[in-house]
Amino acid sequence: MGFKLKTEISFREDIPERIAAIHDKKVWIVCDGFLNGNPLLEKYKNALSIANRVEVYSDIVPDPPLPKVIAGIKVFNQVQPDVILAIGGGSAIDTAKLINYFAHQMGCSRETRFIAMPTTSGTGSEVTAFAVVTDTETNTKIPVNEAAIAPDEAWLDEDFVMKCPKKVTGSSGMDALTHALEAMVARGANHFTDGIADKAACNVFHFLEECYGDNPSREARIRVHTGSCIAGIAFQNAGLGISHALSHQLGSEFHLAHGLANAILLPEVIKYNSKDPVAASKYAHFARIMFFAPRECTDAEGAEALVREVRRLAANVGCGQKLHELGIEQEKYIAAIPTIVKKAQKDFTYPGNPIEPQVEDLVRILLAIY
Ligand SMILES: NC(=O)c1ccc[n+]([C@@H]2O[C@H](COP(=O)([O-])OP(=O)(O)OC[C@H]3O[C@@H](n4cnc5c(N)ncnc54)[C@H](O)[C@@H]3O)[C@@H](O)[C@H]2O)c1
Ligand SMILES: [Fe+2]
Q1: What structural domains does the chain harbor?
Q2: CA contacts within 13 A on the Cβ side of 51
Q3: Is the sign of the CA dihedral 78, 83, 89, 90 positive or negative?
């Protein structure tokens, strides 16, 4: 299994030098719509040498639907970029990754350098070889998992998240926590992923509430922004589990934000996975180092303490609801459960779970979160 990281990561202070080195290139900025007219985007555009040709594309919507990716490939073919600078949340970065990947699959032989700059602290898409596209005909989220999709570079500038709205901060932060806690116990976990999953989860637990509050400090934003990136590296190497396998289906069936769906599922999934002794011991180890539980606690007590703290954090960042509180009708939900289960079992994240669940286990989790 090993440990791989293709993407070179730069922090805010390193970026000016990186930008200055881009010369005589066709630069295609693929960015989130909220950045249109935003001074930060202008700052980056102006920092590029006038010897480059720069074009901006911002036809992006959340949870990238296939038609938007196809539309983007047509524009890619007109622009023929040397450099793609993808700036935005997971949806914008995933859209750019998919456009770039499919354009090359379809015959583009040009070498394109792909740089990702996240504006949410959550998905870790800036370092992963995944991108998620929504098939609007079957209402299914389809992951594309290809080594070539991973960005060449990730630029982490916390300025982009300093003013991120509370709702996006809360749900994307809970997505990052879910990446870390699923990677911690996933089947592909090893000592390297264990260490960084602990660090990523620790950053989120210590600083997400401040980020969600009024006037968060730069330090808090940096901690959650880097935590999210580290969690991406952890899950890219270790895998994920049934929180993601189910949340992908809840997202496409009921249009729930990805991080919110994970926040609702995660406590039930930790409870379920604690039946596995290795998973329980890892959860308990993390609970002890975070002082969620006393050093002498049993693994079961440690895992319970972690569930309690995940629920507390989710509630404090606006993600503590049950599904019925989000306006999802009971009858419609119950009727959708067999489809959700069937699709979850085929999701690429499903095999990473430490225990292979039975259908009844998944149904029990889905009923518990309603
Ligand atoms: N590729 C991966 O490894 C990976 C991992 C997890 C999730 N995902 C996918 O990523 C998507 C979710 O991404 P996300 O949680 O980052 O949300 P998002 O990209 O869908 O953005 C949510 C909303 O917030 C806005 N937004 C983003 N940054 C902002 C900012 N700084 N200020 C103001 N508004 C801002 C966006 O315009 C959008 O309306 C889902 O499709 C999910 O399936 C991908
Ligand atoms: Fe996720």
Answers
A1: 8-160 (3.40.50.1970), 166-368 (1.20.1090.10)
A2: 8
A3: positive
- Measured in Å, residue 245 CA sits from the centre of ligand 2 at 10
d(CA 275, CA 273) in angstroms, rounded, equals 5
Q: Residues of the chain with pLDDT > 90: what percent? A: 95
Asked if residues 207 and 317 have their Cβ atoms less than 8 Å apart, the reply is no
Distance CA(9)–CA(25), nearest Å, equals: 21
Ligand 1 atom at minimal distance to the Cα of residue 248: 43
334 residue type, one letter = I
pLDDT digits (tens, 9 = 90+) for 295-349: 999 999 999 999 999 999 999 999 999 999 999 999 999 999 999 999 999 999 9
Per DSSP bridges, beta strands 140-145 and 130-135 are antiparallel
Q: What tokens were used for 263?
A: 């926040």
Q: How far apart are CA 223 and CA 217, in angstroms?
A: 10
Binned at pLDDT 50, 70 and 90, residue 1 comes out as low
Residue 12: C-alpha distances to residues 9, 19, 83, 90 (Å): 10, 11, 19, 19
Residue nearest (by alpha carbon) to ligand 1 atom 39 = 62
Q: How far is the CA of 247 from the centre of ligand 1 (A)?
A: 15
Closest CA to ligand 1's atom 7: 123
Q: How many CB atoms lie within 10 A of CB 74?
A: 11
Is the model's pLDDT at 65 over the cut of 70? yes
Ligand nearest to the CA of 162: 1
Residue 369 CA: distances (Å) to CA of 89, 103, 223: 26, 40, 29
pLDDT in tens, 205-241: 999 999 999 999 999 999 999 999 999 999 999 999 9
DSSP for residue 10 = E
Beta strands in 208-314 (DSSP E): none
Ligand 1 midpoint to CA 360 (Å):
32
Atom of ligand 1 nearest to the CA of 63: 41
